[in-house]
Design a protein that fits this description.
Structural class: alpha/beta
Catalytic activity: Couples ATP hydrolysis with the unwinding of duplex DNA by translocating in the 3'-5' direction
Distance between the termini: 43 Å
GO cellular component, one term: replisome
Low-confidence stretches: none
CATH superfamily of the largest domain: P-loop containing nucleotide triphosphate hydrolases
Family: Belongs to the helicase family. RecQ subfamily.
Mean pLDDT: 88
Number of domains: 4
Largest sheet: 7 strands, parallel
Strand content: 5-15%
Enzyme class: isomerase
CATH class of the largest domain: Alpha Beta
GO molecular function: 3'-5' DNA helicase activity; ATP binding; DNA binding; four-way junction helicase activity; hydrolase activity; metal ion binding
CATH topology of the largest domain: Rossmann fold
Number of helices: 26
Radius of gyration: 26 Å
Length: 596
């Protein structure tokens, strides 16, 4: 059977996304391969499709326990037998599932890495006919990654010793070049078998808002997108609780998720969000690693994440269906102190802490840059020839530009006069002329730049220093106590060889137009089909996106299918979905046409 025919029959898609076919062919040939694809780029198809063809079992190892049930439910919904074994499964249910797997009736088994290093479970696993081992979220194998887990690394050798020489497939969405090389070495994957499709998410518009009233902005944003699903990430539990209560007090149907809640409440809040009983959830970054909800239209970061990897992974939870989505970062420099505190009090060694500090510096540069936001991220992940996206807040920024060359020269001159031995905080205090840095043994008050910004606030001065750093005029020394140094570009500015321009600060107003409304389909019909989907979802106790994604509903609104043949042509409709839902959705479309 042709791979495309299987793709359409089992999953309802006509064509493969970039990289999918190449990886599947390597897996089908029994090889070891690695796919580096963006979140929402279709990684799961790369092992799910081979699983339907290969004779044995596909073993999927994933650290995302909360995601396993969603993946299994989605597979069973399209007629592909799958199950999972992890710590949430009671012993009697576990025994029943294990006997079912032994019978050969299951095509995919999802397990947590901790299960692989359990001697009793490994002994049972060794007796199975395993054709493919898929390692999801593979970046956690690397100590250079942002979410390293030692238990994941311990499972590699036992997996390599499984009989039968199954094919291997490692998958990740957030891996720098250093992490990619590390994974290839750990898993012994040949360079020719590494497939990179790029990290660009061309349906996501990245936005940064600086210096805004965060709570008011969040309320206005949520109200502007009241019928769309979104996640609001905050750094601390108390922030989550405060935003949650604030939105509730303003009549928003909202949920919350953090480690301080009971297991029961966390589960209920997550279910409410997945099942569209609420559209908004406020959460710490503990939420989302296990969320496969495809119709999340926006992600708002109330607090800046500590690494670009974490940020982009969380951003990737929006727009997984390929339709337009937004990711808004509400940036305040003070938020960086929270991460600095966690780093200083972490259990890692000095090298690990230094790595986290360097990643935090890169995140702060991103938050202050005025270049294309997507290009900044792609450059970070090694895609050096990336072009501007044309859709982020920086690319679309039409604010007035002002020349700040003179102010930049004053800051750079102060850095030099302080012998390039101090950090942003002290430099700002010298520029403003604060009493606490005058008349001490360093005699900063004698510098010609002392108090040169005495008519400005510390906040304004710090923002200017951060802008110069983000745009490459200053660089960091790194280390435990990083200092600011002049770059070559900064030296050129100081010598008058280069001018510096900066956009004036203005808050942007949230757009109230639904993100998916691009004028290419009937939005009223789309809402009718959403309501029908919701009714099926509630009857079957499934999240609505497991019935059909928003992208599939949009395609129905474009194609207007009125018979089974036309309905099967809709993207995301396979043979099982046609049998289950075809008649009802076709009738809904016909009724809508009659009423027009």
């Amino acid at each position: 059977m042709k791979l495309e025919a299987t793709l359409k029959e089992e999953f309802g898609y006509d064509t493969f996304r970039p990289g999918q076919r190449e990886l599947i062919e390597k897996v089908m040939a029994g090889q070891k391969a690695m796919g580096i694809m963006p979140t929402g780029g279709g990684k799961s198809i790369c092992y799910q499709l081979p699983a339907t063809i290969l004779s044995g079992l596909t073993l999927v190892v994933s650290p995302l326990i909360s995601l396993m049930k969603d993946q299994v439910d989605s597979l069973n919904e399209v007629g592909i037998p799958a199950t999972f074994l992890n710590s949430t499964v009671e012993w009697h249910d576990r025994e029943e599932r294990m006997r079912y797997i032994e019978s050969g009736a299951v095509k995919l088994l999802f397990v947590a890495p901790e299960k692989i290093v359990d001697d009793e479970f490994y002994s049972w696993l060794s007796a199975l006919d395993i054709s493919l081992i898929a390692i999801d979220e593979a970046h956690v194998l690397s100590s250079w990654g942002h979410d390293f887990r030692n238990s994941y690394l311990k499972m590699v050798e036992p997996l390599q010793q499984l009989p039968g020489k199954p094919a291997w497939l490692a998958l990740t969405a957030t891996a720098t070049e250093q992490v990619q090389d590390d994974l290839a070495q750990i898993l012994k994957i040949p360079a020719d078998n590494i497939v990179k499709t790029g990290f660009d998410r061309d349906n996501i518009a990245l936005k940064i808002e600086r210096g805004v009233d965060k709570s008011e902005y969040v309320l206005n944003y949520v109200k502007a997108h009241i019928d769309e699903s979104g996640i609001i990430y905050a750094g601390r539990r108390e922030d989550v609780d405060n935003i949650y209560e604030f939105l509730r007090a303003n009549d928003v149907l909202v949920g919350r998720y953090h480690a301080g809640l009971s297991d029961q409440e966390r589960h209920q809040q997550q279910e409410d969000f997945l099942f569209d009983r609420i559209n908004v959830i406020v959460a710490t970054n503990a939420f989302g690693m296990g969320i496969n909800k495809t119709n999340v239209r926006y992600v708002v970061h109330f607090t800046i994440p500590g690494t670009i990897e974490s940020y982009y992974q969380e951003v990737g939870r929006a727009g997984r269906d390929g339709l337009p989505a937004e990711a808004v970062l509400l940036y305040a420099p003070a938020d960086l102190r929270l991460h600095q505190f966690f780093i200083d009090h972490s259990q890692g060694d000095d090298q690990y802490k230094l790595s986290l500090k360097n990643k935090l510096f890169e995140m702060s540069r991103y938050a202050e840059t005025e270049v294309c936001l997507m290009k900044f991220i792609l450059d970070y992940f090694g895609e050096k020839n990336s072009e501007i996206c044309g859709r982020c807040s920086n690319c679309l920024d039409n604010r007035e530009v002002e020349d700040v060359t003179a102010d930049a020269q004053k800051v750079l001159s102060c850095v030099v006069r302080m012998n390039q031995r101090y950090g942003k905080k002290l430099i700002a205090r010298v520029l403003v002329g604060k009493d606490d840095v005058a008349d001490d043994w360093r005699h900063f008050e004698k510098l010609s730049t002392f108090g040169i910004f005495k008519d400005r606030t510390l906040k304004e001065t710090s923002r200017l220093i951060e802008f110069l750093f983000a745009n490459g005029l200053l660089r960091s020394s790194g280390g435990e106590y990083p200092t600011l140094l002049l770059s070559k570009k900064g030296l050129a500015v100081l010598k008058g060889q280069l001018n510096v321009a900066k956009k004036k600060d203005e808050q942007q107003v949230p757009d109230r137009k639904p993100m998916v409304d691009d004028g290419s389909f009937d939005v009223d019909l789309f809402e009718k089909l959403r309501a029908l989907r919701l009714s099926f979802a509630r009857k079957q106790a499934l999240p609505p996106f497991m019935i059909f994604s928003d992208k599939t509903l949009k395609d129905m609104c474009v194609r207007i299918p009125t018979n089974s043949r036309e309905f099967l042509a809709v993207s995301g409709v396979g043979k099982v979905k046609l049998e289950q839902y075809g008649e009802s959705f076709i009738n809904e479309i016909k009724e809508y046409q009659k009423a027009e």
